[in-house]
Amino acid sequence: MKPALLLVDLQGDYLKTADLEPEAETLVARAAALLEGCRRSGVPVVFVWTTVRREDDRRLPHWKQAGRWMCVAGTTGHAPPASLRPIDGDVIVHKAGFDPFADGELEAALGRLRCEQVILAGLHLHACIRSAALGCLERGHRVVIADDATASNDPIHASATRRWLAERCVTFQPVVTVLSQLAGTPPSSLLHRSPRCTDEVLFEVPVEGASRVQAATAMARQAWIQWRRTPGPTRRELLEAIACGLEAAAADLARLMALEIGKPLSHGHEEVWRAIANVRDVIRRHATWSAEQPDGAGLVCHRPLGVVALISPWNNPVAIPIGKIAPALAYGNTVVWKPAPAAMHIAQVLLERLQNVPLIPGAVQLVTGDHTTAQHLAADTQVDAVTFTGSLRSGWALQEICARRMTPLQAELSGNNAAIVWGDTDLARAAAQIAWGAFAFAGQRCTANRRAIVHAPVLDAFLREVEAATARLPWGDPLEASTELGPVIDLAKRDEVTALVRRAQAAGVAERVLLPKAAQAREPWVNRGAYAQPAIVGCDQPDHALVQEETMGPLLVVQAAGDFAEALALCNGVRHGLVASLFTTSPTLQERFREEARAGLLKLNTSTAGADITLPFGGWKASGLGPPEHGVGDALFYTRMQAVYAAGGR
Q1: Per-residue DSSP letters for 548-596?
Q2: Domains by residue range for the chain, with CATH
Q3: CA–CA separation, 152 vs 134, rounded Å?
Q4: Secondary structure class of 463 (helix, strand, coil)
Q5: CB 62 within 8 A of CB 24
Q6: Which of 163, 340, 451, 527 makes an SS bond possible with 418, Cβ 3.0 to 4.6 Å?
Q7: pLDDT, tens digit (0-9, with 9 covering 90-100), for 378-418
């Protein structure tokens, strides 16, 4: 099948669009990799550009209404960045509006190329990419969209477009998959490799489709009929049995996490015991909770939701799902669970432990697969609510699906967490806390300390302290008891973090780059696994991707603040709002921080990393949606209120 690459609207003015997802620098890097790979494989390239001419004004109506002139021929805003410029033999097609086929240029070009398959990338998925895809389909071309090299500034609309096009035979693939297929490599299955030794394949993940999901939700629905009538004391006894089973399995589960996701043993043990504590906190709260309470003219009742879809990430493969399963069961629901691919085997082991407890058969079901399986699950008509922990992009997709069905959604969407370090604090202690929070478990926690905002007079001293504290953190094999900093989950994540720092250096926005483990990084074992060396980067450009993007890797970004108002503005100046912390001895600054920091979790004189399961866990802004997890948040999400009027009520 003869392909052609279409790069749509990758032009200077469009790349300045606010709130692009992914952001412009990342988009350009991925599109450039796609372009280079296609050229290497002999795939013809077509550039589709919006071209506006003042002498022949064919702007779209909303541009005219707003007085907007963009992509004017001959201006820098009309041109693409250097890495995406045409070369001899490439085709350039101009358009005035959304439809690249409107003037006939593109259809003629594809005809000359005898194109059978079109690979699409560029801006915007919900508009011009969508129009291009539909035009190609109508003309008989197979359409592949390079999903991670395609951006939008309207993420919900983009999620709906992605789902809608996929239902119409458009294939979405990451750039690496597109290029491997062009090189003749067979489509890869979901293979999970050891983070410790990436040559070792641990398992293959079956991608289960809609029919398997429907069977699982049907079983969970049948189980719910009996489970919701199970007395509260019986449910609590069964939950205590689950907690005891986890205690017995703690060492095995910690070792499994070290082997399969690279989580250091000490962190794995802590995670299992946190899960156990969470189950027992659910038991304690449920024992004093009442499903019916008199109020005013009648009763306020709390009813179970029904079947809850649980979609969990890989980085906390025990604590997060157990922290959702326990309250779901306690409050009378059943569960269908879709773990992240890398956590599939751990999920299967956990499910075996749950099945050793005499629950109602079918009360907890497991389905495996990728994001398509998760979307089938969220869209299933037997599902009454969705609880999700994962990326912001996945959260948008689930939000769109749940909105169509009017299904309750609880979403924890990670964080870009800042610690403010003020001059009156103990800098050595603050630096040690922040280094551990940023780099332990290779920074792969949603609460990890991703940013440090430091009072300018003590910036240099802090950098010396945090570099030294990072150097002291044991980096190595997660199976070693002393290790704090192991590998990242895979080579793609390692390369992503490294590329982000290099692009920042090339752009001149990385003020300083400190690599405390540079000497150790040259040792042979580092290259055998997905080991990303920890980096401390100074960046005083608050709108740069280095600051704005949540990396989920061993990267700490340090910013200077001249006064406390600037520190708060930098802390709040990202779209996420999960955790923020403040290191200071000043009660006045602590109170101001509590009033003005825009995050769901606030901490004083400690790292952002970690959370107590007795307190509600939920982010503000783009970090969360719906009621928080844990603590008082459980009854808010896993039940719904019903007012029962007494006789004679209005």
Answers
A1: HS---SSEEEEEEESSHHHHHHHHH-SSEESEEEEE-S-HHHHHHHHHH
A2: 3-188 (3.40.50.850), 207-289+299-413+628-641 (3.40.605.10), 417-615 (3.40.309.10)
A3: 17
A4: helix
A5: no
A6: 451
A7: 999 999 999 999 999 999 999 999 999 999 999 999 999 99
